[in-house]
Write a structure and sequence with these properties.
The protein contains 6 helices and 10 strands; from the N terminus they run H-H-E-E-H-E-H-H-E-E-E-E-E-E-H-E. By secondary structure, the chain is an alpha+beta fold.
Length: 225
Amino acid sequence: MKTKISILLILAGASAMSSLSGCAAFAYLATLFTPPKTIKPEYEIPKDKTILVLVDDPSHLAQGESIRYELTRQLNKDLVASCITEDVISYHQLRQLMVATPEFHNLSNTEIAKKIGADIVLYVQIREFSLKDHPSSPVWQGNLRTTIRVVGAEEGTLWPEDSLEGYDVKKVSTPRETHEYIKNAGRKLTKTLAEDMSCNIINLFIEHKGRDHHDLPEKDVEEQP
């Protein structure tokens, strides 16, 4: 059985390497037989704190609030599942505060935190969001890029301290697909983008393993004629 598995791994590696050349091929071969490395968190959120996820779209890149709702919901779920906190402010609670506070959009993150009873705000700003290249196109491809800041209700910005725009989170995208006749394709893509972005954000705050062996190197490699 071990011999069979080894042969399959070699065949898989050979297949992947056939599309690469030079240094890229050797880099892939090295990662294939090297255990995934442990990645340390970029920042550790203080424990036992109530966290408010605040997803902001100041440039109105997304029509409606679907991506804000989905990303908030997923982050709340993942924050608890990753043991970063046991107490999060729900999107429903946030919406209630927004409706009851006419000047909400003029409030700072620290002011919002104090009003809603949060110790920390995970501020997520949408920098790029799209589901299609053009509204009339039958081809769907989701793209989402965000920056984040961790803000204390009393302390102000906790992380990153050296950037006014926040930490640029790795962009997430979905494959190009035609969903002309599939109902709710936009909603499904939005949910997928939220799940993938939440994973990238949570990984900034926890120790985790690097990518799997079967992943190809991220570096772009020119195709050979």
